[in-house]
Write a structure and sequence with these properties.
Fumarate Reductase Iron-sulfur Protein, Chain B, domain 2; binds iron/sulfur cluster; single chain; globular; mainly alpha
Length: 228
């Protein structure tokens, strides 16, 4: 595995171009009909406009903050959205399983073996089902639960606009199939966590992937099908 390197979760907020780059030779081979097994470089215009700072692709159009105020706004809106996820008034249907998923993870990595995204990436650390969940958990313990010992009990990370942007993009490196959730021996639902992160972006920050939102969710709501 040529390009596999250890990724430190604390780097999630680092001021670097991107967190990981997966060489094509590490990727699962495509069937013969799909010859295009190469990354296409992101257009310069896209990179100038949106926070394409996770890996080689960019799905969520998060505008790059231009001022310190815009950076803070992105972080504060994210935290506000997260707070709503953990309140009965706003999220009673998913609160119980979300709480369980925040409080318990044995780090056994059984879920990683079930995740086709992780496997297809050549077992790149960043695409483990637990990677995004652990970032979300650390933010939760420090900023929502406000555990004064969060740093020592659960591990710390720097919450800045890059952390938020990368976490949002990471939520789209999961297709919410829930294979991981079905294999977890203690009932942690990493798929739900990915979906709830997407929810914060769409409902609190007004940022969605146009293709999925317009041709998927909205069409479903209007017509009951995304195939029309
Ligand atoms: S989420 Fe479940 S399966 Fe995955 S590492 Fe944690 S305890 Fe193990
Ligand atoms: S829900 Fe996401 S993290 Fe879980 S197995 Fe499916 S793609 Fe992987």
């Amino acid at each position: 595995m040529a390009g596999r390197k250890r990724i430190n979760i604390k780097d999630i907020g680092r001021d670097i171009d991107k967190l990981a780059s997966v060489p094509v030779e590490d990727l699962m081979s495509l069937p013969a009909d799909f010859k295009e097994n190469e990354w296409k470089a992101l257009p310069e215009e896209t990179k100038q406009k949106f926070a394409c700072i996770l890996d080689d692709v960019c799905i969520l159009p998060i505008p790059i903050p231009k001022t310190r105020e815009e950076e803070e706004k992105l972080v504060n809106q994210f935290i506000e959205g997260m707070r709503k996820l953990f309140s009965k008034e706003n999220n009673w249907t998913f609160l119980s399983i979300l709480d369980t998923s925040m409080e318990h993870c044995a780090r056994c990595n059984t879920c990683s073996d079930a995740c086709h995204l992780f496997e297809a990436s050549g077992k790149n650390e960043m695409y483990r089902p637990t990677f995004r969940s652990e970032i979300f958990r650390r933010i939760y313990n420090k900023h929502i639960k406000k555990d004064p010992l969060a740093r020592w009990r659960h591990g710390d990370l720097d919450l800045n606009w890059r952390t938020v942007a990368r976490l949002g993009e990471l939520a789209y490196r999961c297709n919410i199939c829930r294979r991981c959730a079905q294999t977890c021996p203690i009932g942690v639902d990493n798929a739900l966590i990915a979906r709830e992160i997407r929810k914060i972006f769409s409902q609190e920050l007004g940022i969605t992937t146009p293709e999925l939102h317009d041709k998927g969710s909205m069409l479903q709501l209007k017509t009951g099908s995304s195939r029309l």
